[in-house]
Task: inverse folding
Protein backbone atom coordinates (compact mmCIF):
# COMPACT_ATOMS: atom_id res chain seq x y z
CA UNK A 1 0.00 0.00 0.00
CA UNK A 2 1.26 3.46 -0.83
CA UNK A 3 0.97 6.14 1.79
CA UNK A 4 2.43 8.94 -0.33
CA UNK A 5 -0.92 10.49 -1.17
CA UNK A 6 -2.00 10.62 2.49
CA UNK A 7 1.35 12.07 3.57
CA UNK A 8 1.29 14.66 0.82
CA UNK A 9 -2.21 15.76 1.86
CA UNK A 10 -1.25 15.84 5.55
CA UNK A 11 1.83 17.97 4.89
CA UNK A 12 -0.27 20.32 2.78
CA UNK A 13 -2.74 20.62 5.68
CA UNK A 14 0.12 21.40 8.05
CA UNK A 15 1.44 24.07 5.70
CA UNK A 16 -2.00 25.58 5.10
CA UNK A 17 -2.96 25.70 8.77
CA UNK A 18 0.31 27.42 9.70
CA UNK A 19 -0.03 29.79 6.74
CA UNK A 20 -3.54 30.65 7.87
CA UNK A 21 -2.46 31.09 11.50
CA UNK A 22 0.44 33.29 10.39
CA UNK A 23 2.81 31.36 12.68
CA UNK A 24 3.79 27.86 13.72
CA UNK A 25 6.49 25.22 13.85
CA UNK A 26 6.72 23.96 10.29
CA UNK A 27 10.09 22.16 10.17
CA UNK A 28 9.57 20.06 13.31
CA UNK A 29 6.01 19.18 12.22
CA UNK A 30 7.23 17.89 8.85
CA UNK A 31 10.00 15.80 10.45
CA UNK A 32 7.65 13.70 12.60
CA UNK A 33 4.73 13.40 10.17
CA UNK A 34 5.35 9.73 9.29
CA UNK A 35 5.91 8.74 12.92
CA UNK A 36 2.63 10.28 14.08
CA UNK A 37 0.76 9.08 10.99
CA UNK A 38 1.53 5.38 11.37
CA UNK A 39 0.82 5.41 15.11
CA UNK A 40 -2.50 7.19 14.75
CA UNK A 41 -3.62 5.51 11.55
CA UNK A 42 -2.85 1.92 12.43
CA UNK A 43 -2.35 1.60 16.17
CA UNK A 44 -4.96 3.84 17.79
CA UNK A 45 -8.68 3.19 17.55
CA UNK A 46 -10.44 6.08 19.23
CA UNK A 47 -13.64 4.03 19.55
CA UNK A 48 -11.94 1.51 21.82
CA UNK A 49 -11.99 2.60 25.45
CA UNK A 50 -8.93 0.50 26.20
CA UNK A 51 -7.11 2.03 23.26
CA UNK A 52 -3.40 2.76 22.95
CA UNK A 53 -2.24 6.27 23.88
CA UNK A 54 -0.09 8.79 22.08
CA UNK A 55 1.85 11.54 23.80
CA UNK A 56 3.41 14.19 21.61
CA UNK A 57 6.03 15.30 24.08
CA UNK A 58 7.48 17.69 21.49
CA UNK A 59 4.26 19.68 21.64
CA UNK A 60 5.41 22.31 19.15
CA UNK A 61 4.68 19.75 16.39
CA UNK A 62 0.99 20.27 17.19
CA UNK A 63 0.11 21.18 13.57
CA UNK A 64 1.23 17.68 12.53
CA UNK A 65 -0.96 15.83 15.02
CA UNK A 66 -3.91 18.14 14.23
CA UNK A 67 -3.50 17.54 10.49
CA UNK A 68 -3.48 13.77 11.06
CA UNK A 69 -6.57 13.95 13.30
CA UNK A 70 -8.18 15.89 10.47
CA UNK A 71 -7.10 13.28 7.93
CA UNK A 72 -8.74 10.62 10.12
CA UNK A 73 -11.97 12.69 10.30
CA UNK A 74 -11.57 13.32 14.01
CA UNK A 75 -11.87 17.12 13.72
CA UNK A 76 -14.74 19.30 12.55
CA UNK A 77 -14.83 20.42 8.95
CA UNK A 78 -12.46 23.35 8.38
CA UNK A 79 -11.36 23.21 12.00
CA UNK A 80 -7.69 23.31 10.94
CA UNK A 81 -8.30 26.92 9.91
CA UNK A 82 -8.83 27.79 13.57
CA UNK A 83 -5.25 26.85 14.50
CA UNK A 84 -3.79 29.32 17.03
CA UNK A 85 -7.01 31.33 17.20
CA UNK A 86 -8.83 32.46 20.34
CA UNK A 87 -11.30 29.81 21.67
CA UNK A 88 -10.05 27.22 19.15
CA UNK A 89 -9.57 23.62 20.25
CA UNK A 90 -6.35 23.76 18.25
CA UNK A 91 -4.12 25.84 20.49
CA UNK A 92 -0.56 26.72 19.50
CA UNK A 93 0.61 23.81 21.62
CA UNK A 94 -1.71 20.87 22.42
CA UNK A 95 -4.31 21.61 25.10
CA UNK A 96 -6.04 18.49 26.43
CA UNK A 97 -8.65 20.56 28.26
CA UNK A 98 -9.93 21.91 24.96
CA UNK A 99 -9.24 18.95 22.66
CA UNK A 100 -10.27 15.79 24.47
CA UNK A 101 -8.71 13.53 21.82
CA UNK A 102 -5.30 14.39 23.19
CA UNK A 103 -3.78 12.13 25.80
CA UNK A 104 -1.64 14.92 27.27
CA UNK A 105 -1.36 18.65 26.78
CA UNK A 106 2.27 19.49 26.09
CA UNK A 107 4.52 22.36 25.09
CA UNK A 108 7.07 22.58 27.87
CA UNK A 109 9.61 20.00 26.73
CA UNK A 110 10.74 17.00 28.73
CA UNK A 111 7.50 16.01 30.45
CA UNK A 112 5.83 13.47 28.16
CA UNK A 113 7.79 10.34 29.00
CA UNK A 114 6.97 10.67 32.72
CA UNK A 115 3.27 10.93 31.93
CA UNK A 116 3.61 7.83 29.73
CA UNK A 117 4.81 5.99 32.83
CA UNK A 118 1.70 7.12 34.70
CA UNK A 119 -0.47 5.73 31.89
CA UNK A 120 1.50 2.48 31.91
CA UNK A 121 1.09 2.02 35.67
CA UNK A 122 -2.64 2.75 35.29
CA UNK A 123 -2.90 0.03 32.65
CA UNK A 124 -1.26 -2.40 35.05
CA UNK A 125 -3.71 -1.53 37.83
CA UNK A 126 -6.69 -1.70 35.46
CA UNK A 127 -5.52 -4.87 33.67
CA UNK A 128 -5.45 -3.09 30.32
CA UNK A 129 -3.19 -4.55 27.65
CA UNK A 130 -2.52 -1.32 25.79
CA UNK A 131 0.59 0.53 24.62
CA UNK A 132 1.73 4.08 25.10
CA UNK A 133 3.59 5.80 22.25
CA UNK A 134 5.69 8.76 23.30
CA UNK A 135 7.28 11.02 20.69
CA UNK A 136 10.24 13.10 21.83
CA UNK A 137 12.36 15.59 19.94
CA UNK A 138 16.10 15.00 19.73
CA UNK A 139 16.76 18.44 21.24
CA UNK A 140 14.31 17.53 23.99
CA UNK A 141 16.76 14.90 25.23
CA UNK A 142 18.67 17.80 26.81
CA UNK A 143 15.90 17.99 29.44
CA UNK A 144 16.90 16.14 32.61
CA UNK A 145 13.40 14.85 33.27
CA UNK A 146 13.61 12.63 30.17
CA UNK A 147 16.41 10.72 31.87
CA UNK A 148 14.59 10.52 35.20
CA UNK A 149 11.77 8.84 33.28
CA UNK A 150 14.15 6.63 31.27
CA UNK A 151 15.80 5.46 34.48
CA UNK A 152 12.40 4.44 35.88
CA UNK A 153 11.29 2.68 32.68
CA UNK A 154 14.55 0.77 32.45
CA UNK A 155 14.71 -0.17 36.14
CA UNK A 156 11.12 -1.44 36.07
CA UNK A 157 11.42 -2.97 32.60
CA UNK A 158 8.25 -1.26 31.40
CA UNK A 159 7.54 -2.77 28.00
CA UNK A 160 4.26 -1.16 27.02
CA UNK A 161 5.82 2.26 26.40
CA UNK A 162 7.50 2.83 23.04
CA UNK A 163 9.71 5.90 23.01
CA UNK A 164 10.32 7.56 19.65
CA UNK A 165 12.99 10.18 19.09
CA UNK A 166 12.37 12.48 16.16
CA UNK A 167 16.04 12.78 15.19
CA UNK A 168 15.86 15.81 12.91
CA UNK A 169 19.29 17.02 14.14
CA UNK A 170 18.14 20.54 15.00
CA UNK A 171 16.65 22.44 17.90
CA UNK A 172 15.17 25.92 18.33
CA UNK A 173 18.22 28.00 17.54
CA UNK A 174 20.90 25.84 15.97
CA UNK A 175 21.81 22.23 15.20
CA UNK A 176 22.14 19.73 18.02
CA UNK A 177 25.81 19.41 17.12
CA UNK A 178 26.41 23.15 17.58
CA UNK A 179 24.32 23.39 20.76
CA UNK A 180 25.12 20.35 22.88
CA UNK A 181 26.72 17.53 20.97
CA UNK A 182 25.12 14.12 21.46
CA UNK A 183 27.66 11.65 22.75
CA UNK A 184 26.85 7.96 22.35
CA UNK A 185 23.07 8.23 22.46
CA UNK A 186 22.76 4.50 21.83
CA UNK A 187 25.06 3.71 24.73
CA UNK A 188 23.15 6.08 26.98
CA UNK A 189 19.77 4.44 26.35
CA UNK A 190 21.22 0.94 26.49
CA UNK A 191 22.84 1.67 29.81
CA UNK A 192 19.42 2.73 31.11
CA UNK A 193 18.12 -0.74 30.20
CA UNK A 194 16.60 -0.05 26.78
CA UNK A 195 16.69 -1.85 23.45
CA UNK A 196 17.86 0.91 21.07
CA UNK A 197 16.66 0.70 17.49
CA UNK A 198 17.75 3.16 14.80
CA UNK A 199 15.59 3.55 11.73
CA UNK A 200 14.54 5.80 8.87
CA UNK A 201 11.83 7.97 10.44
CA UNK A 202 10.28 8.69 7.05
CA UNK A 203 9.77 5.03 6.15
CA UNK A 204 6.25 3.97 7.05
CA UNK A 205 7.11 0.32 6.38
CA UNK A 206 10.12 0.35 8.71
CA UNK A 207 8.28 2.19 11.49
CA UNK A 208 5.30 -0.15 11.13
CA UNK A 209 7.50 -3.25 11.38
CA UNK A 210 9.18 -1.96 14.54
CA UNK A 211 5.88 -1.10 16.20
CA UNK A 212 4.46 -4.50 15.27
CA UNK A 213 7.48 -6.26 16.76
CA UNK A 214 7.27 -4.28 19.99
CA UNK A 215 3.52 -4.76 20.35
CA UNK A 216 4.08 -8.48 19.77
CA UNK A 217 6.53 -8.37 22.70
CA UNK A 218 9.43 -9.46 20.50
CA UNK A 219 11.88 -7.61 22.74
CA UNK A 220 12.54 -8.39 26.38
CA UNK A 221 13.40 -4.77 27.18
CA UNK A 222 11.70 -1.38 26.84
CA UNK A 223 12.27 -0.04 23.32
CA UNK A 224 13.46 3.38 22.19
CA UNK A 225 13.36 4.09 18.45
CA UNK A 226 15.78 6.69 17.17
CA UNK A 227 14.22 7.93 13.94
CA UNK A 228 16.59 9.54 11.47
CA UNK A 229 14.48 12.35 10.06
CA UNK A 230 14.91 15.53 8.08
CA UNK A 231 13.73 18.80 9.48
CA UNK A 232 11.33 20.39 7.00
CA UNK A 233 10.93 17.04 5.17
CA UNK A 234 8.93 17.23 1.96
CA UNK A 235 9.85 20.72 0.76
CA UNK A 236 13.34 20.90 -0.74
CA UNK A 237 14.20 24.45 0.33
CA UNK A 238 13.06 23.75 3.91
CA UNK A 239 14.88 20.46 4.36
CA UNK A 240 17.69 20.76 6.88
CA UNK A 241 17.22 24.53 6.97
CA UNK A 242 16.52 25.64 10.52
CA UNK A 243 15.11 28.95 9.29
CA UNK A 244 11.86 27.02 8.93
CA UNK A 245 11.80 25.79 12.55
CA UNK A 246 9.23 28.39 13.49
CA UNK A 247 7.77 30.50 10.70
CA UNK A 248 5.46 33.42 10.06
CA UNK A 249 3.25 33.44 6.99
CA UNK A 250 5.42 32.45 4.02
CA UNK A 251 5.76 34.84 1.07
CA UNK A 252 3.25 33.79 -1.60
CA UNK A 253 5.94 32.60 -4.03
CA UNK A 254 7.53 30.32 -1.42
CA UNK A 255 4.13 29.06 -0.29
CA UNK A 256 3.16 28.14 -3.84
CA UNK A 257 6.47 26.43 -4.48
CA UNK A 258 6.03 24.37 -1.31
CA UNK A 259 2.48 23.40 -2.25
CA UNK A 260 3.60 22.40 -5.73
CA UNK A 261 6.38 20.18 -4.40
CA UNK A 262 4.03 18.51 -1.91
CA UNK A 263 1.45 17.97 -4.65
CA UNK A 264 4.03 16.22 -6.80
CA UNK A 265 4.60 13.67 -4.01
CA UNK A 266 1.12 12.18 -4.34
CA UNK B 1 -9.87 12.36 70.06
CA UNK B 2 -7.94 12.68 73.31
CA UNK B 3 -7.48 16.39 73.97
CA UNK B 4 -4.15 15.97 75.78
CA UNK B 5 -2.50 13.78 73.21
CA UNK B 6 -0.30 15.52 70.67
CA UNK B 7 0.18 14.09 67.23
CA UNK B 8 2.11 15.58 64.35
CA UNK B 9 0.15 16.86 61.39
CA UNK B 10 2.21 14.68 59.03
CA UNK B 11 1.36 11.60 61.09
CA UNK B 12 -2.32 12.50 61.00
CA UNK B 13 -2.02 12.86 57.22
CA UNK B 14 -0.39 9.46 56.77
CA UNK B 15 -2.99 7.67 58.88
CA UNK B 16 -5.95 9.49 57.35
CA UNK B 17 -4.78 8.52 53.87
CA UNK B 18 -4.71 4.85 54.86
CA UNK B 19 -8.29 5.14 56.19
CA UNK B 20 -9.45 6.62 52.90
CA UNK B 21 -7.36 4.15 50.90
CA UNK B 22 -9.33 1.27 52.44
CA UNK B 23 -12.58 2.73 51.12
CA UNK B 24 -11.37 4.10 47.80
CA UNK B 25 -9.32 1.90 45.47
CA UNK B 26 -8.59 4.84 43.15
CA UNK B 27 -6.22 6.40 45.64
CA UNK B 28 -2.59 5.76 44.72
CA UNK B 29 0.68 7.08 46.13
CA UNK B 30 3.88 8.30 44.47
CA UNK B 31 6.96 8.66 46.65
CA UNK B 32 10.24 10.46 46.02
CA UNK B 33 12.49 8.68 48.51
CA UNK B 34 10.94 10.56 51.44
CA UNK B 35 7.94 8.39 52.26
CA UNK B 36 9.10 7.77 55.81
CA UNK B 37 9.55 11.46 56.56
CA UNK B 38 6.30 12.42 54.80
CA UNK B 39 4.37 9.53 56.38
CA UNK B 40 3.33 8.22 53.00
CA UNK B 41 5.00 5.05 54.29
CA UNK B 42 1.77 4.03 56.04
CA UNK B 43 0.01 3.92 52.66
CA UNK B 44 2.92 2.00 51.12
CA UNK B 45 2.75 -0.61 53.90
CA UNK B 46 -1.00 -1.06 53.53
CA UNK B 47 -1.35 -0.86 49.75
CA UNK B 48 1.92 -1.89 48.10
CA UNK B 49 0.25 -2.56 44.75
CA UNK B 50 -1.02 1.02 44.60
CA UNK B 51 2.25 2.59 45.75
CA UNK B 52 5.05 3.73 43.46
CA UNK B 53 8.57 4.79 44.43
CA UNK B 54 10.26 6.83 41.68
CA UNK B 55 13.49 7.64 43.50
CA UNK B 56 14.93 11.12 43.92
CA UNK B 57 13.21 12.52 40.85
CA UNK B 58 10.53 15.08 41.70
CA UNK B 59 9.88 16.12 38.10
CA UNK B 60 9.29 12.52 37.06
CA UNK B 61 6.99 12.01 40.06
CA UNK B 62 4.83 14.93 38.93
CA UNK B 63 4.51 13.41 35.44
CA UNK B 64 3.89 9.86 36.68
CA UNK B 65 1.11 11.13 38.94
CA UNK B 66 -0.38 13.10 36.04
CA UNK B 67 -0.55 9.97 33.86
CA UNK B 68 -2.18 8.00 36.68
CA UNK B 69 -4.74 10.75 37.22
CA UNK B 70 -5.77 10.71 33.54
CA UNK B 71 -6.98 7.13 33.98
CA UNK B 72 -9.25 7.89 36.92
CA UNK B 73 -6.86 7.50 39.81
CA UNK B 74 -6.40 10.03 42.62
CA UNK B 75 -2.62 10.14 43.08
CA UNK B 76 -0.98 11.61 46.17
CA UNK B 77 2.61 12.73 45.55
CA UNK B 78 4.40 13.60 48.76
CA UNK B 79 7.75 15.18 49.39
CA UNK B 80 9.20 18.07 51.34
CA UNK B 81 7.24 21.15 50.29
CA UNK B 82 10.43 22.99 49.34
CA UNK B 83 11.50 20.24 46.92
CA UNK B 84 8.20 19.42 45.29
CA UNK B 85 6.96 22.99 44.78
CA UNK B 86 10.42 23.77 43.45
CA UNK B 87 9.27 21.82 40.40
CA UNK B 88 6.83 24.56 39.52
CA UNK B 89 7.35 24.29 35.73
CA UNK B 90 6.42 20.60 35.83
CA UNK B 91 3.47 21.19 38.18
CA UNK B 92 2.30 24.08 36.00
CA UNK B 93 2.52 22.35 32.64
CA UNK B 94 1.80 18.71 33.48
CA UNK B 95 -0.81 19.06 36.24
CA UNK B 96 -2.25 22.56 36.15
CA UNK B 97 -2.37 23.12 32.37
CA UNK B 98 -4.04 19.71 31.98
CA UNK B 99 -6.30 20.21 35.03
CA UNK B 100 -5.10 16.78 36.13
CA UNK B 101 -6.60 15.59 39.43
CA UNK B 102 -3.31 15.15 41.28
CA UNK B 103 -2.78 15.87 44.98
CA UNK B 104 0.59 17.28 45.94
CA UNK B 105 1.51 16.99 49.57
CA UNK B 106 4.27 19.29 50.76
CA UNK B 107 5.54 18.43 54.22
CA UNK B 108 8.23 20.06 56.38
CA UNK B 109 6.73 23.49 55.99
CA UNK B 110 7.70 26.53 58.01
CA UNK B 111 10.05 26.46 61.00
CA UNK B 112 11.07 22.82 60.75
CA UNK B 113 14.29 22.86 62.72
CA UNK B 114 17.94 22.05 62.44
CA UNK B 115 17.96 20.80 58.84
CA UNK B 116 17.73 24.43 57.80
CA UNK B 117 16.37 26.49 54.96
CA UNK B 118 16.91 24.16 51.98
CA UNK B 119 14.61 21.55 53.55
CA UNK B 120 11.96 24.03 54.74
CA UNK B 121 9.01 25.07 52.59
CA UNK B 122 8.82 28.84 53.00
CA UNK B 123 7.57 30.01 49.60
CA UNK B 124 5.34 27.07 48.68
CA UNK B 125 2.03 28.86 49.14
CA UNK B 126 3.18 31.71 46.91
CA UNK B 127 3.92 29.23 44.14
CA UNK B 128 0.92 26.97 44.55
CA UNK B 129 -1.82 29.58 44.93
CA UNK B 130 -0.84 30.96 41.53
CA UNK B 131 -1.49 27.63 39.77
CA UNK B 132 -4.78 27.63 37.82
CA UNK B 133 -7.42 25.06 38.97
CA UNK B 134 -5.47 24.19 42.13
CA UNK B 135 -7.05 24.16 45.57
CA UNK B 136 -4.65 24.96 48.40
CA UNK B 137 -5.35 23.63 51.89
CA UNK B 138 -3.39 23.77 55.14
CA UNK B 139 -4.77 21.89 58.16
CA UNK B 140 -4.22 23.24 61.68
CA UNK B 141 -4.83 20.15 63.84
CA UNK B 142 -4.92 16.36 63.47
CA UNK B 143 -8.72 16.37 63.19
CA UNK B 144 -8.64 19.13 60.58
CA UNK B 145 -6.09 17.04 58.64
CA UNK B 146 -8.34 13.99 58.71
CA UNK B 147 -11.34 16.00 57.53
CA UNK B 148 -9.35 17.61 54.72
CA UNK B 149 -8.03 14.25 53.51
CA UNK B 150 -11.60 12.90 53.47
CA UNK B 151 -12.67 15.88 51.36
CA UNK B 152 -9.73 15.65 48.97
CA UNK B 153 -10.28 11.93 48.39
CA UNK B 154 -13.85 12.58 47.30
CA UNK B 155 -13.06 15.41 44.88
CA UNK B 156 -11.14 15.81 41.63
CA UNK B 157 -9.49 19.21 41.67
CA UNK B 158 -5.70 19.43 41.56
CA UNK B 159 -4.81 20.11 45.18
CA UNK B 160 -1.84 21.24 47.21
CA UNK B 161 -1.75 20.26 50.87
CA UNK B 162 0.67 22.11 53.13
CA UNK B 163 1.51 19.78 55.96
CA UNK B 164 3.49 20.70 59.08
CA UNK B 165 5.70 18.34 61.04
CA UNK B 166 4.81 20.11 64.30
CA UNK B 167 3.13 18.08 67.02
CA UNK B 168 -0.13 19.76 67.85
CA UNK B 169 -2.73 18.89 70.50
CA UNK B 170 -6.29 18.71 69.22
CA UNK B 171 -8.12 21.93 70.03
CA UNK B 172 -10.97 21.86 67.54
CA UNK B 173 -14.45 20.70 68.51
CA UNK B 174 -14.83 16.96 67.94
CA UNK B 175 -17.67 17.66 65.50
CA UNK B 176 -15.43 19.86 63.35
CA UNK B 177 -15.98 19.40 59.61
CA UNK B 178 -13.88 20.85 56.81
CA UNK B 179 -15.85 23.11 54.50
CA UNK B 180 -14.08 24.24 51.37
CA UNK B 181 -13.61 28.00 51.22
CA UNK B 182 -14.86 28.63 54.75
CA UNK B 183 -12.84 30.53 57.32
CA UNK B 184 -13.16 28.83 60.69
CA UNK B 185 -13.92 31.21 63.59
CA UNK B 186 -12.27 29.63 66.61
CA UNK B 187 -12.62 32.56 69.03
CA UNK B 188 -15.04 35.43 68.76
CA UNK B 189 -13.75 38.79 70.06
CA UNK B 190 -14.43 42.49 69.76
CA UNK B 191 -11.48 44.64 68.79
CA UNK B 192 -8.54 42.67 67.48
CA UNK B 193 -8.68 39.76 65.05
CA UNK B 194 -5.90 37.24 64.60
CA UNK B 195 -5.98 35.26 61.35
CA UNK B 196 -3.68 32.28 60.98
CA UNK B 197 -3.26 28.94 59.24
CA UNK B 198 -1.52 25.64 59.85
CA UNK B 199 0.72 25.01 62.81
CA UNK B 200 0.74 28.67 63.86
CA UNK B 201 -2.97 28.62 64.75
CA UNK B 202 -2.13 26.68 67.90
CA UNK B 203 0.50 29.22 68.98
CA UNK B 204 -1.91 32.09 68.34
CA UNK B 205 -4.61 30.37 70.38
CA UNK B 206 -2.24 29.86 73.32
CA UNK B 207 -1.06 33.47 73.12
CA UNK B 208 -4.64 34.79 73.19
CA UNK B 209 -5.55 32.50 76.10
CA UNK B 210 -2.60 33.92 78.04
CA UNK B 211 -3.94 37.44 77.50
CA UNK B 212 -7.15 36.52 79.33
CA UNK B 213 -8.99 39.20 77.45
CA UNK B 214 -12.18 38.73 75.49
CA UNK B 215 -11.38 41.41 72.91
CA UNK B 216 -9.37 39.00 70.69
CA UNK B 217 -10.88 36.95 67.93
CA UNK B 218 -9.15 34.05 66.14
CA UNK B 219 -9.83 32.75 62.67
CA UNK B 220 -8.20 29.67 61.16
CA UNK B 221 -7.96 29.52 57.39
CA UNK B 222 -7.45 25.93 56.22
CA UNK B 223 -8.91 26.59 52.79
CA UNK B 224 -6.44 29.16 51.53
CA UNK B 225 -7.68 28.73 47.97
CA UNK B 226 -10.56 28.96 47.33
CA UNK B 227 -11.49 31.32 50.17
CA UNK B 228 -14.98 32.68 50.70
CA UNK B 229 -14.32 36.42 50.67
CA UNK B 230 -17.80 37.43 51.78
CA UNK B 231 -17.64 35.37 54.95
CA UNK B 232 -14.16 36.59 55.81
CA UNK B 233 -15.12 40.23 55.17
CA UNK B 234 -18.18 39.85 57.41
CA UNK B 235 -15.96 38.57 60.19
CA UNK B 236 -13.27 41.23 59.68
CA UNK B 237 -15.84 44.04 59.73
CA UNK B 238 -16.55 43.26 63.38
CA UNK B 239 -12.99 44.28 64.30
CA UNK B 240 -10.86 47.43 64.21
CA UNK B 241 -7.51 45.72 63.88
CA UNK B 242 -6.47 42.58 62.00
CA UNK B 243 -3.16 40.69 61.99
CA UNK B 244 -2.21 37.59 60.03
CA UNK B 245 0.33 35.14 61.42
CA UNK B 246 2.11 32.63 59.20
CA UNK B 247 5.24 30.44 59.16
CA UNK B 248 5.74 31.31 55.48
CA UNK B 249 7.13 34.17 53.45
CA UNK B 250 5.00 37.30 53.72
CA UNK B 251 5.46 37.66 49.95
CA UNK B 252 2.51 35.71 48.59
CA UNK B 253 1.34 33.76 51.64
CA UNK B 254 -1.67 34.09 53.95
CA UNK B 255 -0.95 37.77 54.62
CA UNK B 256 -1.07 38.47 50.90
CA UNK B 257 -4.34 36.54 50.55
CA UNK B 258 -6.03 38.60 53.28
CA UNK B 259 -4.53 41.91 52.15
CA UNK B 260 -5.84 41.34 48.62
CA UNK B 261 -9.34 41.02 50.07
CA UNK B 262 -8.97 44.06 52.35
CA UNK B 263 -7.62 46.20 49.52
CA UNK B 264 -10.18 45.17 46.95
CA UNK B 265 -13.09 45.74 49.30
CA UNK B 266 -11.69 49.01 50.73
CA UNK B 267 -12.12 47.77 54.28
CA UNK B 268 -11.33 50.42 56.87
CA UNK B 269 -9.15 48.24 59.05
CA UNK B 270 -5.71 48.58 60.59
CA UNK B 271 -3.83 45.63 59.13
CA UNK B 272 -0.53 43.94 59.89
CA UNK B 273 1.18 40.94 58.30
CA UNK B 274 3.39 38.86 60.58
CA UNK B 275 5.46 36.18 58.93
CA UNK B 276 8.85 35.42 57.48
CA UNK B 277 10.56 38.32 55.76
CA UNK B 278 12.50 38.32 52.52
CA UNK B 279 15.11 35.74 53.42
CA UNK B 280 15.79 32.15 54.42
CA UNK B 281 15.52 30.73 57.94
CA UNK B 282 18.50 29.50 59.96
CA UNK B 283 19.13 26.08 61.44
CA UNK B 284 18.11 25.46 65.03
CA UNK B 285 15.56 23.54 67.02
CA UNK B 286 11.97 24.63 66.25
CA UNK B 287 11.49 26.25 69.68
CA UNK B 288 14.49 28.51 69.09
CA UNK B 289 13.39 29.32 65.57
CA UNK B 290 9.93 30.29 66.78
CA UNK B 291 11.57 32.69 69.25
CA UNK B 292 13.91 34.14 66.65
CA UNK B 293 11.14 34.75 64.14
CA UNK B 294 8.70 35.86 66.87
CA UNK B 295 6.26 33.03 66.32
CA UNK B 296 6.47 31.58 69.85
CA UNK B 297 3.63 32.08 72.32
CA UNK B 298 5.52 34.73 74.33
CA UNK B 299 6.42 36.84 71.29
CA UNK B 300 2.93 36.51 69.84
CA UNK B 301 1.39 37.59 73.18
CA UNK B 302 3.50 40.74 73.06
CA UNK B 303 2.67 41.43 69.42
CA UNK B 304 -1.09 40.97 69.98
CA UNK B 305 -0.99 43.13 73.11
CA UNK B 306 0.79 45.96 71.29
CA UNK B 307 -1.48 45.79 68.26
Result:
Amino acid sequence: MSYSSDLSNIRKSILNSIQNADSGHLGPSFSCTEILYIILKKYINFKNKNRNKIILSKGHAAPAIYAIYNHLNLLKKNELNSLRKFTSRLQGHPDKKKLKLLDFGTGALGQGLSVSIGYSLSSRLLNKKNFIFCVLGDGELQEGQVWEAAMYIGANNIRNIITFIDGNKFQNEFSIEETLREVDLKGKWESFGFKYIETNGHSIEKLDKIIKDVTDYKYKKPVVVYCNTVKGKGVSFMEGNNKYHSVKKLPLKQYNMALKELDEQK
Amino acid sequence: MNKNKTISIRDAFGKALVDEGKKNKKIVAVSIDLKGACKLSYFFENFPERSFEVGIAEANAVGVATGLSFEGFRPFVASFGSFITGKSAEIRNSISYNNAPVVIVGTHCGLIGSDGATQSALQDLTIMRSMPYFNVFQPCTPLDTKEIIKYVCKTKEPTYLRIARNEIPEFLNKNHKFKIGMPNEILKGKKKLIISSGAMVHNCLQAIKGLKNSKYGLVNISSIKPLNRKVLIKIMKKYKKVITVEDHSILGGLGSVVSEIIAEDNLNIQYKIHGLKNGFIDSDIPEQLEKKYQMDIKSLTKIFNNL
Summary: Chain A touches chain B through 31 residues (CB under 8 Å). The two ends of chain A are 13 Å apart (CA to CA). The CA atoms of residues 28 and 206 of chain A lie 20 Å apart. The longest strand of chain A covers residues 161-167.
